[in-house]
Here is the input.
Amino acid sequence: MIVGTEWLIEATGCDKSALRDEAIIRAVFSTAIADLGLKVLGSVWHKFDGQGGITGLVALTESHLACHTYPEHGTATFNLYCCRNRPEWDWEGHLKSALKASSITVAKIERGGENTGSESELTDLEIGSEIPYLKSEIAGGGQR
Here is the structure.
């Protein structure tokens, strides 16, 4: 049984000033939330001093949407977790437009499963190995 879907998004080659602009990141969040019909419970935002980036977290009735930007690396990372099925969102189009990203990677993970294994089975897995009850897809790729 799948209990939720999680998307892990990395945008690289981004405009550094866009990664420091809280209004731009909030606009990405607002568009995703509206397009996907998500419901906001509350949010926390932090702008790091100087040339630092932004951290944003929005609690949703469906779970959460989070972001952290790294202007010094031209990178932004996003995480959206939903406990209900949602349509795919055009992360690539939106982030290329908003952040001037040159590359977007989207990993989709279906969470939960009937055979979740015991804690000891999970800790014995090697880093990078496939966890049996997780199914992930890379945008443009296929299942991993």
User: Anything to note?
Assistant: The longest helix spans residues 22-36. The chain has a mean pLDDT of 84. The two ends are 19 Å apart (CA to CA).
